[in-house]
Amino acid sequence: MAQVEPQEGGSPARTPAKALACQVGACTQGTAKFQGAGLLGGSGKKGSPPGEDYAFLADKFHDVVQALGVGEPKVDVFASPANARCTTCWNPENSAFAKQWGAQGLLWINPPFSQLSEVVNKIETDGAECLLVCPDWSARPWFAKAQLLCAKAHFYPPGSRLFETDKGPAGPTRWGVWVLYIPAKSNEMRTVRVVENREGGNEKQLRVVIRLTAEDREVVPPCTALIDTGAEVCLVKRGLIPPELFRPARQPLRLVGADGNTLPGGDKEVVLEVGLKGILKDSKKEAVLRIPTIFYEAEVKDPVILSYGWCQVRGFDIFPRLHGLNCKRKGREYWVEGVRSAPGGNLLEAICAVGADKPKRALDLFSGTGSAKKVLEKEGFEVISLDSEARFQPTLCCDILGWDYKEYPPGYFDIITASPPCTEFSQAKTVGERKVEQALKLVQKTLEIVEYFRPKVWWLETPRYGLLTKNSLLANVPHWDVDYCQFGRGGFKKPTRFYGSAHLAELPSFLCDGKSCPNLGEGRKHSRPLGGHFGAATKALTYPIPSAIITGACGLGAPHRKVWFQAGGAPAQGAVCGVGGGVGPNKKVRFTLPNGEGGAEVPPTDPEIAETEPEVDQEAPDAPYPDLDSQEFVRQKWVQEQIREKACWTRDPEEHPEAINARKRIEEKFADSVLSGVYVSDPPIRGPFGEAEIWVAETTCPVGRPAFRMGGDKLEAHT
């Protein structure tokens, strides 16, 4: 998304320039209401009564006020007398939003985070001077606007303890927290310097090609921008931008050139998005940097002037002799090449050669484990994810029914995906009362959002035999039917229907015939759905959507299935020929244990179906649960001679001690066992303490409510 991302790190180590990289401000301190499991690890709820509100800790309040050095706040805008940090406080009872914020002195604003969009708009409209407390939610539109208003900032990294309730200090924060100083709007004219085209001397001038857009609309053709190390503000040439886009300057300027003469302009400003095309230094791939910027209109020679302060705050290092800019953002390094004019001085050819393209954007509703987001990000999309559960770490953690989606303009997203909770619609729900009406509200809200944005592609997935498919709400919407067992190795069928844009009706159905499906287990049946008995699929196993299905549903390519081969290379009966080979799903791993060293002999691997080794240096087109490939769960292992058996696992960067101890017990128990045949891991299962895979008996099946489990007559072990 187009915005300046905040730099990582704690506030004590940040310079004022780096702190400005995330500018958002408001000045009033008091209580803040958090949406469930939002900023804190607790269970604060939107609209909770005053007794459950979160106030900024008193010592932290005094520390940040002193660190920013802008004076003591006079009014705590969202607070009650019991937890106010200022002598005067406003709260919903005395209508904080109904008051004029612009003439009250310095305000302390620690608002309900669900109202931050309204708060930032109010600050801008009233021209208030304030200290604003806000989370590090850089994908929200109000965040970019706050950046433009901010003059100073103080950052607290995730895990900081900043808030308290009437019951005592609250837990650590889930996200970083900013306290931003926003200066008041002023009618007094400020004098600023503009050097531009300095006469005399040997100073090199650096120009780069940029593209200026407003609300995803290009306002001028690609043009050059002068990097003016002597300028204090960013300027745009008078007459270049349509006049209807300008607004009166929040702080009128008196512009003074290098010769000391006053330049016309400085009374109007416009917010534009600067697009710069750079090269990633590690991969040498092109990337577009998009940065919202306030420009003042002025009578200057160059089309656009970018100030030294603009470069410094946004992480650009200027290299005039190398003729370019070096930028470090989010741990990645970019090189922006400067424009080298032809001998005649014509820059048009260079400008047209490096024009920036519009970014691809996607919205992932009810994102859950992030199956769609991972696929779309691999395809180069900027993805905004939304979910009400903070454990999934969505971009927007909120209830969709209360989300103000109109913060984004119509047409902002190219793709919208939705996986609303299917519990109330599914046939698997046999216990408790169905809350169909509440579930339908989520679907209706999704359709409302789709109607507003009108994306090129959208889809909503639901159980194929569920109640939603019998409802008239989606009766006339194109759909596509698939069974998950045709795309993965989970052992479960999961019949699903995708409703959405017209392209879905043109896709071929991928349905299980119940006979030739390689996922059929003992008794020629699939694993049971969620819940049930031994062998039932776990939530972590069934929630992810296979990547091939997402690719097809998003219109990014044709969905494909694996080919299952018999010994000898011929496709197995009933197999569908797709791209590449694969390993049979739900295939039990069988070991031969020598007599006297661990028990009776277990039969060797079934010879009727053999596994084909994937090609070297080629990613399998539909690896089991490819959504989890990025975490490298368990790779197929081909054992060609007898070796001592060891547990095979993958490791998370931070593992729970119980996971480590369980793995040690597995290794000790099977230390004297000898493996023969082929070792193939079953589908990956995510436990609460990490990932692990070990299957050592033909009766082993994918279960795992406990994190790790082992035992049985045949020495089976499984997660």
Description of the molecule:
The protein is an alpha/beta fold and 719 residues long. The chain has four domains: 172 residues, Rossmann fold (3-Layer(aba) Sandwich), CATH 3.40.50; 164 residues, Acid Proteases (Cathepsin D, subunit A, domain 1, Beta Barrel), CATH 2.40.70; 193 residues, Vaccinia Virus protein VP39 (Rossmann fold, 3-Layer(aba) Sandwich); 158 residues, no CATH class. It is 13% helix and 23% strand. The chain has eleven helices and 37 strands. InterPro entries: C5_DNA_meth_AS (IPR018117), C5_MeTfrase (IPR001525), Dam_MeTrfase (IPR008593), SAM-dependent_MTases_sf (IPR029063).
Detail the topology: elements first, then pairings.
Layout: H1 16-19, E1 31-32, E2 54-56, H2 58-68, E3 75-76, E4 88-89, E5 107-109, H3 116-126, E6 130-135, H4 141-149, E7 152-156, E8 163-165, E9 168-169, E10 177-182, E11 190-193, E12 206-214, E13 217-218, E14 223-228, E15 235-237, E16 247-248, E17 253-256, E18 262-263, E19 265-280, E20 286-298, E21 304-307, H5 308-313, E22 316-319, E23 324-329, E24 332-337, H6 348-353, E25 361-365, H7 371-378, E26 382-387, E27 396-397, E28 415-418, H8 436-453, E29 457-463, E30 479-483, E31 495-500, H9 539-542, H10 547-553, E32 643-644, H11 657-669, E33 674-675, E34 686-687, E35 690-691, E36 709-711, E37 716-718
Parallel strand pairs: 3-4, 3-5, 5-6, 11-17, 14-21, 15-20, 25-26, 25-28, 26-27, 28-29
Antiparallel strand pairs: 1-2, 2-8, 6-10, 7-10, 8-9, 12-13, 12-14, 12-19, 15-21, 16-19, 17-18, 19-20, 19-24, 22-23, 23-24, 29-31, 30-31, 32-33, 34-35, 36-37
Helix pairs in contact: 3-4
